[in-house]
Design a protein that fits this description.
4-stranded mixed β-sheet, 547 residues
Length: 547
């Protein structure tokens, strides 16, 4: 099997357009592909795992429960894996920016543009899904025929898949679990610093050049807003945690400069028909972003290796149950096998007895059958004993695993209570510093000697805000990891034990964290709103008004 293994150093290119024409925000680990007309295409690596197991694809939850369009954006399980690998793991390559007019013309036109203009730097729009696929076909053939290309021979360009787009939009492996599940990836400023959307404070009804705003955590620009981006596979509606079986039109992701800011999210996913009014569908805010890919296997050896790996996967691994219940299924099967073995031994004994009674002349044969029966009996006894021993060992292993799981669950509850109390204390400290800053700020206006004290309180105030945000993020992360790893029912017994044995000052915070944990699945995906909600409820406990 052949994977792309090349460094991220920039290709040596001679360009007539300035560098910002195709990569306005260059980074050292960008990957550039040569295009005609002295253009190039910038891509970024998106790691899906940091191991070496080809079959270990990344499982994540697409969509969101907080959507006005549940048929298109309801939560459902998805998987993603990269085609390429290096020393850090497996990854796929995705366009750093939306495809520009200049890049499109360089591939599709026989002659290069004679004049350079800023219009060539805008995203390519008003093309159909079929024209987008035709563009990827032509570019792939150019790459195949380029003797100077450092790409593998079978590498090709295509539209990204739905899972590749959303995994990158959410921040991939670069963000925490709670940040990944949020409505938007982590933003250091306002949404308008990252996306062009409807309104005079942002796009103001105009298409904009890519790369002019801030990137997402993986270094991609304009995944949200500016132009809607076409996806490779057809649209399927979502229902009860999975995709529906019917295929429809094509998928558009990310919204555009005509989309209201409230609708923008990493889960934004809409359908557009391939044809409208007797023509192929197009739109003034519809464009594309490219992906570079490889076949799953390129030779017979690779096919054999993958077949062997897939065949080696056990049924217990395939179940993927987080609560360990697959081991209970194994014990049940062992019990059934033990019972079946005993039944077989009983039937052999009955057959031998029947033959003895049938005819005394068959004594010699009966002796042989008796010997065989004895041998089978010993073999069955040995097999039964082995199976019984295996069952006992597995039961003991499951017991030890359950003990470790219970310890982890209790530790999560204690940590949650501790963080809740810290959120309350930090908020109390923050309120005191805010009051002090206001008081000494007024005094500073009257007497210069109070200005130093005012400045000290201002500095402490900023430190407390950062501490509160960090604690809130950690608080959300341990809830997200707990709900992703264990079933909620496992926490109930541990909570009752800790509630009885905990200190009376500590128990209210334990109750509050347990309540937040139970409600986490239905909580808002707005990280800032969650932080304020959690902090306020923990603070009320300190004030004597909480649970």
């Amino acid at each position: 099997m052949r994977y792309l293994k090349f460094c991220s150093a920039l290709l040596s290119l001679t360009v007539s357009l300035p560098l910002w024409a195709f990569n306005p925000k260059p980074q050292a680990d960008d990957v550039l592909i040569r295009l005609p007309c002295e253009q190039s295409l910038a891509l970024r690596k998106v790691y899906t795992q940091h191991g070496k197991d080809r079959l270990a694809d990344f499982k994540f939850q697409s969509g969101t429960a907080m959507s006005a369009s549940p048929m298109a954006q309801s939560p459902h399980t998805d998987y993603v894996q990269g085609s390429f690998s290096d020393e850090e793991g497996f990854y796929y390559l995705l366009g750093k920016y939306e495809l520009t007019e200049a890049q499109y013309q360089a591939v599709m036109n026989e002659k290069c543009p004679k004049e350079q203009s800023r219009a060539l730097l805008l995203p390519k729009v008003n093309l159909s899904w079929f024209e987008a696929v035709e563009f990827t076909r032509r570019l792939s053939l150019l790459l195949q025929k380029d003797p100077s290309s450092s790409l593998p021979k079978l590498a090709y360009v295509r539209l990204p898949t739905d899972s590749e787009w959303e995994f990158a939009a959410r921040g991939g492996l670069m963000v925490s679990q709670s940040e990944f599940e949020a409505k938007l990836p982590p933003l250091k400023g306002q949404l308008s610093d990252y996306a062009w959307f409807e309104g005079v404070k942002s796009a103001d009804g105009h298409l904009h050049q890519g790369g002019m705003l801030e990137p997402n955590p993986l270094g991609f620009y304009d995944l949200l807003g500016n132009v809607q981006e076409m996806i490779l596979e057809p649209f399927r509606l979502t229902r009860t945690g999975r995709l529906h079986g019917q295929s429809g039109g094509f998928i558009m992701r990310g919204g555009s400069y005509l989309t209201p800011s409230a609708q923008l999210s990493s889960a934004l996913r809409t359908e557009k028909p391939y044809y409208q009014g007797g023509r192929e569908s197009r739109a003034k805010d519809l464009g594309l972003r490219l992906a570079l890919s490889l076949p799953v296997s390129s030779d017979l050896k690779g096919v054999r290796e993958l077949n062997d790996k897939v065949s080696a996967l056990g049924s217990e691994e395939s179940t993927g149950k987080a609560d360990g219940s697959q081991h209970l299924d194994t014990i049940k099967k062992l019990d059934e096998l033990i019972a079946k073995t005993k039944a077989q031994a009983a039937r052999v004994s009955e057959q031998a007895e029947s033959l003895r009674n049938e005819n005394e002349k068959l004594d010699s044969e009966n002796d042989k059958l008796g010997s065989e029966n004895e041998r089978l009996g010993l073999a069955n006894q040995s097999l039964t004993q082995s199976l019984q021993t295996l069952r006992e060992q597995l039961t003991q292993s499951n017991s030890e695993r359950d003990e470790m799981r219970d310890v982890a669950v209790a530790a999560n509850l204690r940590l949650g209570a501790f963080l809740c109390s810290n959120l309350a204390a930090t908020r109390d400290q923050l309120l005191y510093q805010m009051e002090s800053a206001v008081t000494y700020g007024k005094r500073c206006l009257k007497t210069q000697t109070f200005c130093t004290v005012y400045e000290n309180y201002q500095a402490q105030l900023e430190e407390s805000k950062l501490k509160l945000k960090s604690l809130g993020s950690y608080y959300g992360d341990i809830m997200a990891e707990a709900r992703a790893t264990y079933q909620l029912a496992l926490f109930e017994d541990s909570f009752e034990k800790l509630k009885k044995s905990g200190h009376k000052v500590y128990v209210p915070y334990l109750k509050q964290y347990y309540a937040h944990l139970k409600a986490y699945a239905d909580a808002s995906k707005d990280a800032q709103a969650n932080l304020e909600h959690w902090t306020q409820q923990c603070y009320l406990i300190m004030e004597g008004n909480g649970s």
